[in-house]
Amino acid sequence: MLSVDRVRDFFPNATSLDAPASSSATQAVRDATGTVLGLVTQTSPDSDRIIGYSGPSNLLIVMNPRGIVTGLRVLHSS
Q: What's the whole-model pTM score?
């Protein structure tokens, strides 16, 4: 599960994340007024069966409120 601290580099005014509907669901990032700043999701566990150079990787995918990808970050890679 993602925390607000993990997305602050992309959304400095973030104060909360909506609860995910599942372990791989997209979450809305909100500021103190409840305004949606953007969306985030991660590739794990859906991509865990895909083995890269030395194992699966988990990426953070960052989107604007319209769902357009604006950033990526490697959260874990063997």
A: 0.83
Structure tokens at 29: 């990032």
Strands laid side by side in the 69-77 sheet: 16-17, 27-30, 36-42, 57-63, 69-77
Per cent of the chain over pLDDT 90 is 56
Q: Which two tokens stand for residue 20?
A: 């995910």
Cα–Cα distances in angstroms (integers) from residue 5 to residues 47, 55, 60, 66, in the given order? 23, 26, 13, 22
Residue 67 main-chain phi, psi, to 5 deg: 90, 15
Burial 3-31 (b: 16+ CB within 10 A, else e): eeebbeebbeebeebeebeeeeeebbbbe
Length of the chain as a residue count: 78
